[in-house]
Write a structure and sequence with these properties.
about 240 residues
Length: about 240
């Protein structure tokens, strides 16, 4: 497993800066809309401006002077010493270059400086690359399965599907949660390798995957099991707590 405390080196010309002006906020909102295939409601400029101005985490990822990504998080209740990462996105031509990890490490350092102990966020359990990144690269812990968490979403990524999500917690000062050994794995839940492609080509099959994975997850959790990790071949690995 990759050590998430080791800061990745951004590629030459890439820089992360706070979103401080109205112009920067509007540009970031536009970039996030492009990432989500035209969803202009995912992070509206007025909300982003309010979050940034009130001291929450709101940054842009720049290639020179061009804004190519953004990340937004907000604080939880003071006693929890927690921050929830609501949205992070990078333009398609800049994806698969390690920039998501660069943003996450910047977010981690920013949170540490403000005495935040852990960061939470959600992701679609059917997206294998996100499961790999969150559980195997960062070593987060799955804390909850949320059924249709956001209701219907009218963007090019989620349109026509229910928005089930996994809630994960990233303990910033702890070592990453390791993938469990085979003898500790009690059950597994497989997912497709490319759910986005399946949604485009065989929407009915994609919907069947949603219901199947939901049913299996909820049954294993009801049986007292917890997600111990993720394996690219087997999917989610369940263990006894």
């Amino acid at each position: 497993m990759t050590d998430p405390s080791a800061d990745p080196v951004p590629p030459p010309g890439i820089e992360i800066r706070p979103l401080e002006t109205v112009e920067e906020v509007f540009a970031a909102s536009e970039v996030l809309a492009d990432v989500w295939s035209g969803d202009r409601g995912g992070m509206p400029p007025n909300l982003l401006r309010a979050l940034a101005h009130s001291g929450n985490y709101a940054v842009g990822l720049y290639d020179g002077d061009r804004l190519v990504g953004a990340s937004v998080a907000f604080f939880a209740a003071p006693s929890e010493r927690s921050m929830h990462s609501h949205i992070t996105g990078v333009l398609p031509q800049y994806q698969r270059q390690g920039l998501g990890r660069v943003l996450k490490q910047h977010q981690r350092a920013w949170a540490f400086a403000r005495e935040v102990g852990h960061i939470t966020w959600t992701f679609d359990p059917l997206v294998a690359r996100n499961a790999h990144f969150n559980l195997r690269v960062l070593g987060t812990r799955v804390t909850e399965y949320l059924v249709n968490q956001y209701g219907p979403m009218d963007d090019g990524v989620n349109r026509g599907d229910e928005t089930d999500r996994l809630l994960v917690a990233w303990a910033l000062a702890a070592p990453p949660v390791p993938t469990p050994p085979d003898d500790a794995v009690v059950a597994s839940v497989g997912i497709p390798s490319d759910i986005e492609g399946l949604r485009r080509e065989k929407a009915t099959d994609a919907a069947s995957w949603r219901l199947r994975v939901r049913a299996q997850f909820l049954q294993h959790l009801a049986d007292g099991l917890v997600v111990g990790g993720f394996d690219d071949a087997r999917g989610y690995l369940f263990v006894r707590p």
